[in-house]
Amino acid sequence: MRSPRLLAATLVALAAALAACSGASEPPSVSERTLRAIEDDNSWTWRQQGQPLELGVTHTQDSLDGNEPAAARDRGVAILSDNGGIWQNHHLMGFGSTNPEPSPGDYDWSTLDRRMELTEETGGRTVLTACCAPDWMKGGEPGETDWTRLEDDPEPEYFDDYARLVAQAVERYPQIERVLVWNELKGFYHQEDNRWDYEATPTSTTTSTRR
């Protein structure tokens, strides 16, 4: 159990981060007393953030889509347009996005087109989560989409095909600034070793910044 001093230091740091997001021009400085408390606890590491925290939203199933009541969608658009989230994240497949490549070379960008337009409409900055993979990359039949297998990982021989699919998406949507590679190691569980197969997804928790 962490000490009360550490808990207090953590709460002060969190308060400073939240204040930075509230619209204040300058976040309050952390006191010397708090800094000493943090430094005295060897289990805690702290580094001053270089810039204010930037919040965002992830669009999932039925997220401000055209089939929703117009009044509700308009309210959502107004919230996003009023700095409701600086970053807007979209999944390449699933969580509201259809299969982007049902068969090799056969692309369907209709859902992502609408969602990218929404981000543009509301003035958001775009993140693409490169997850999940079409069925034919997971041993399924081309042209079929089994949504119960959404979180299955692509087979290693299709890793390059998946990378090319992501590249196609980034080329299609130049507003994408960052790409999150895969999502929470979905499907990459190594049964023999009884652990996540992180070697197969070395960048699974990193964010790539578009240059």
- Describe the sheet with the most strands: 5 strands, mixed
Strand content: 5-15%
Distance N to C terminus: 43 Å
Radius of gyration: 21 Å
Poorly predicted runs of 5 or more residues: 202-206
Helix content: 25-40%
SSE run: HHEHEHEHEEEE
> Averaging pLDDT over every residue, what do you get?
81
Molecular shape: flat
Number of domains: 2
Strand order of the largest sheet: 1-2-3-4-7
Kindly name the structural category: alpha/beta
Which helices and strands occur, and which strands form pairs?
Layout (H helix, E strand, L loop, with lengths): L3 H18 L10 H9 L15 E3 L11 H15 L2 E5 L18 H12 L3 E6 L28 H14 L3 E6 L7 E2 L4 E2 L10 E3 L2
Parallel strand pairs: 1-2, 2-3, 3-4
Antiparallel strand pairs: 4-7, 5-6
Q: Can you put this structure into words, describing what you see?
A:
By secondary structure, the protein is α/β, with parallel strands linked by helices. The protein folds into two domains: 4-40, no CATH class; 56-209, no CATH class. The chain contains five helices and seven strands, in the order H-H-E-H-E-H-E-H-E-E-E-E. The strands form two sheets. Strands 1-2-3-4-7 form a five-stranded mixed beta sheet, covered by helices on one side. Strands 5-6 form a two-stranded antiparallel ribbon. A hairpin with a 4-residue loop joins strand 5 (189-190) and strand 6. Helix 1 crosses helix 2 (32-40). The protein is flat, with a radius of gyration of 21 Å. The chain starts with a helix and ends with a strand. Residues 202-206 have low confidence and may be disordered.
